[in-house]
Amino acid sequence: MAGKLQEFLTGARVDDAVFVLRPDYRAMLVAVDGLVPGPSDQASDAFLKAAEEAARRAADELPVELLPHVTAWREAYRAFGAKPQRTRNSVEALLRRAASGLPRVNRLTDVYNAVSVLHQIPVGGEDLARYTGPPQLVRAGGTEPFDTTADGVTVTEYPDPGEVVWCDDAGLTCRRWNWRQARRTQLSDGTTTALFILDALAPMTDEALHTAAEDLVSHLMRLGPDVQVARRLIAGD
Prior knowledge:
The protein is α+β, with helices and mostly antiparallel strands. The protein has helices spanning 2-10, 16-21, 42-61, 68-79, 90-98, 107-119, 206-220; strands spanning 13-14, 26-33, 123-127, 136-139, 146-150, 153-157, 164-168, 171-175, 180-181, 193-200, 228-235. It has a five-stranded mixed β-sheet with strand order 1-4-7-8-9. The chain has a four-stranded antiparallel β-sheet with strand order 3-10-2-11, sandwiched between helices. A hairpin with a 4-residue loop joins strand 8 (171-175) and strand 9. The longest helix is centred in the N-terminal third of the chain and has 20 residues, at 42-61.
């Protein structure tokens, strides 16, 4: 299975137009199989509590929007026309929630949310089995379908032209780089094979990005006796 995970990641790509927008962008992709699903437990709760405390300490030093990596993501959102005050990047949204307590969803989601907050990096988690073809990060044309909910009702939306989006061959998997994930590929309580995307911009270093990925993998390895992992870093030339 490890070979199939690596083959899946080999097909992933980041379009040149994204690197034109942000030459400093890097995507760390982590594909995992053999996960044993389960609800939030003592270990995931403790990990989230450590993340909440780290977020509070960070907020004591600087407002969330002035944390260096959050500021970089706000600038990236403005560069493709999004308003970061209205549509917050995923790490900023989690850091702001940490003061009142991060959600407890299931142990898989808890792990990647904790890593996101602890390392101040956007992290997305997707059900790899629900993908149609490999992941791609592109500038949207505006006609790609995105399945989501509005007021509790399932709806199909479309991105703004030029918006940075993750997609596969069937449509969008995440809008505005790391803002909102599609329902189709979202993690569920039954997910056993998953894709995690760690998004980095300067001033985050490659070393810090690899450290965050190592932290994620070390916790994922505890979620089953036969967990297998493949990784790939995508960066501009």
